[in-house]
Write a structure and sequence with these properties.
Shape: globular
Strand content: under 5%
Number of helices: 12
Distance between the termini: 50 Å
Helix content: 55-70%
Structural class: mainly alpha
Number of strands: 0
Radius of gyration: 20 Å
Length: 348
């Protein structure tokens, strides 16, 4: 069995003509995945609110696991949306460029918002602040700072997302069983990292490059495999209820002191993440709220960290700061929609 599909086969590797995935369209939007994306982003915001404002309760001590869900969701959605296009001749470089253009503006906005706090955010670990700012604005990790992305800490996961997107330009050719094996090997790597460090809150700090790669390699490839093997089949609606409840409940689990803290994180990635994703496919109702959560999720993730700094500096209570982050993300969504509308009018 070869690892690369034959050149004349017009379908993504491991997919038969009868089950070949179709490109996404507005009528095929999976609203449950939008809802889960929004819930995961809110968990990250609440987690960071406690980190920056300790008087706020630690409601989601495992909110960092949202990143693993984001990676899996991205692998699923990118396979669903782009593998047919890559099979039809879309160059991998153009796919990567499209992803970079999609992610860069909002992440750059978050970075610019954090510039006044850069010295404070690095906690004296970075002696070349402007070098760090420039490199981070390009969505590249800084070798000079304690955090890869001192300018906007959540950007570390976007960097690894882009690494996965670049790899997807080749992975779409790899047959699904082989890709599943690669995911299993990466998962073993991830388990070892979790055991060594005692948790999976890894990838953002300088020196965590391997751990970050293990996280994205495991879950992004799992997302691709889920799309190819499961597609859009809708399971029982009970899966939707499970997905909406299980993820925030798991994020709320407290740290353990019995040496098994790492195992709780590994169980989420290895056993719960995929059923939660499939549960999102099962959701049929709540389209308006789900769409709103999905639209807010990425801007919220991109700008919440600097906004929390701004609200803290202004003396705002943590709950108000969280609401302010959501409103700020809403403004970004509205601004982006207005800009796209203007571009369409000019082209017309």
């Amino acid at each position: 069995m070869t690892l690369v599909r034959r050149a004349k086969r017009p379908y993504a590797a491991g997919v038969t003509p009868a089950t070949a995935p179709r490109p996404i369209s507005a009528s095929e939007r999976l609203y449950g995945l939008d809802a889960l994306r929004g819930i995961a982003a809110m968990a990250v915001v609440v987690m960071h609110a406690h980190v920056l404002m300790p008087e706020f309760p630690d409601l989601f001590p495992r909110g960092y696991l949202a990143v693993d869900f984001f990676f899996m969701l991205s692998g699923y959605v990118m396979a669903r949306t782009y593998e047919p296009r890559l099979a039809a001749g879309l160059p991998g470089l153009k796919f990567f460029a499209a992803r970079y253009r999609r992610l860069w503006p909002t992440m750059a906005l978050g970075g610019v918002l954090f510039i006044p706090f850069l010295a404070e955010g690095t906690r004296g670990q970075d002696i070349v602040l402007w070098h760090t700012a420039l490199v981070n604005l390009l969505l590249l990790p800084s070798p000079w700072s304690g955090n890869y992305f001192a300018l906007n800490v959540p950007a570390w996961s976007i960097f690894f997302e882009l690494v996965a997107n670049a790899a997807h330009g080749v992975l779409w050719r790899v047959r699904t069983p082989v890709l599943a094996m690669l995911s299993m090997v990466s998962f073993a790597w991830l388990v070892d990292a979790a055991w060594v460090h005692g948790h999976l809150d890894l990838g953002s700090r300088n020196g965590d490059l391997g751990e970050g790669l293990a996280r994205v390699a495991t879950t992004y490839t799992m997302g691709i495999v889920i799309w190819r093997w499961w597609g859009e089949r809708r399971p029982s609606p009970m899966f939707s209820v499970f997905a909406l409840i299980a993820m925030p409940l798991w994020f709320a689990l407290p740290d353990r002191s019995d040496g098994l803290n790492w195992l709780v994180d590994v169980i989420f990635v290895g056993l719960l993440c995929a059923p939660i994703l499939i549960g999102g496919i099962a959701q049929r109702g709540g389209r308006w709220i789900s769409t709103a959560l999905g639209e807010l999720s990425f801007p919220l993730y991109a700008i919440h960290y600097p906004l929390l700094y701004w609200f803290r500096a202004a003396g705002a209570p943590p709950a108000l700061a969280i609401v302010g982050c959501v409103l700020g993300a809403g403004l970004v969504v509205l601004g982006s929609a207005a800009w796209k509308h203007q571009r369409q009018r000019r082209r017309a």
